Amino acid sequence: MAVKKNRLGFIVAGLLLGILIAAIDNTIVATAMGTIIGELGGLDQFVWVTSAYMVAEMAGMPIFGKLSDMYGRKKFFIFGVVLFLIGSMLCGTAHSITELSIYRAIQGIGGGALIPITFTIIFDIFPPELRGKMSGMFGAVFGVANLFGPLMGAYITDYWHWRWIFYINVPLGLIAFLLVVLFYKESHEHSRQKIDIWGAATLVGAVVSLMFALELGGNKYAWDSMIILGLFAAFAVLFIIFLLVERKAEEPIISYEMFRKRLFAASSAAALFYGAAFITAAVYIPIFVQGVMGGSATNSGLILLPLTLSSVVASQVGGILSSKMTFRRIMIFSATVFLLGMFLLATITPETSRLVLSLYMMITGFGIGFSFSVLSMSAIQGMELRQRGSANSTISFLRSLGMTIGITIFGIIQRNDFKGQLTEKLGGAVQNIPANADPQHMLSPEARALIPPQVMEKISTALSVSVDHAFLWALIPVFFALVSVSMMGAGRMQFAKNK
């Protein structure tokens, strides 16, 4: 699609702002959650604030991606911005955790449209020689969000009010809205097609069931409870029905035809495994620093600074290299570095210095960063215009699904291992520690000051060993990511004219 240069900058600015508010939202909200609970109450329900957003976002991604193929990117990007802003304003007015959770779901639906459609628009409006550079820039937004989100959330909560973490989205979103409305013109025609209602309904039902089972299992309900088992059963049944429905649908939400393309199938699998391993590093490095090294929970953004900055650099480098070599070559290097980084993280101990830990984080982040830009491009490469939205939304969906499954599985491993280590080191005294104790809260500076030094040393060692084991287990998805990218074939950026 040809776009005049005097409009291109405004379009990019609008897209960047749109994806930034969607990417940074969860990190800001997580930082302010303690203050929100203190004012609204609902300690036993706060998990729904995050779950509602994630469920709505994940369920919406493949649906909005497909709709953008059918009816145009612009209208659904605008729809995503408007719905996200409506949800943000409503969140700022919430007077209970239940209200906040409902409004977060509205936000999540908007976010489910923003993220995949933004990357698809980039592929539509930029020529092949610039796609890598722009994808690297937009991929870096996620690293910036992880870095500045917690810092911004802490500042706004402390010096303004927690409600402003939602209101701050409004001016940024309005600017994005105006820039895209005024300057982005779609030139291609879209034909009305039959909407796959049954596919959408069964996909949403399956995702909702799986997400709630993973979020509530082991927390609010036991894993073997009838509610959790019922949710897993509902997921299995609805997902099987979804697969059967998609085989016969005229315009399926997720087309099997896309997975027949080697490059797309391998990229999708890699996104799933990258997501599962990445979230493990992002969650447990701060816990290690706080619980073992005695750092503060309020500077979580600074703790991850080496990992974040190296991933931002790698995202840019990956985008540039995509115009020079095959996707497989880039991603094999990425996965190998990622594998090395996760292995090194699995060797950290209470004696590990912050400098050494920072070096390990930089290696891990550099390995991760390539996936943010390269996999988005490789998934769309070779797709016709009518398939690009669906392809990009599918890979975004699988990355998010991998993160959700990863943090659930490795969270169970770490918690059980931590409990076992405590039992071994403290004996009967461990009975005084709640079974669902969160080490990130239990080992805050305030809590550490109340624990005798000899006991604190044993707890820190137990936590260190449990985090190491979580990183070791996380090597499995990194290995499968390496296997997946090795199957990408000789696909590379095509410089032929867009279809």
UniProtKB/TrEMBL annotation:
Lineage: Bacteria, Bacillati, Bacillota, Bacilli, Bacillales
Species for this entry: Paenibacillus mangrovi
Pfam families to which the protein is assigned, alphabetical: MFS_1
Domain Major facilitator superfamily (MFS) profile: 11-499
Keywords: Cell membrane, Membrane, Transmembrane, Transmembrane helix, Transport
Membrane topology: Multi-pass membrane protein
Subcellular location: Cell membrane
InterPro entries for the chain: EmrB-like, MFS, MFS_dom, MFS_trans_sf
Name of the protein in its database record: MFS transporter
TM stretches of this protein: 46-64, 76-97, 103-126, 138-156, 162-183, 195-214, 226-245, 266-289, 301-321, 330-349, 355-375, 396-413, 470-490
PROSITE patterns, alphabetized: MFS (PS50850)
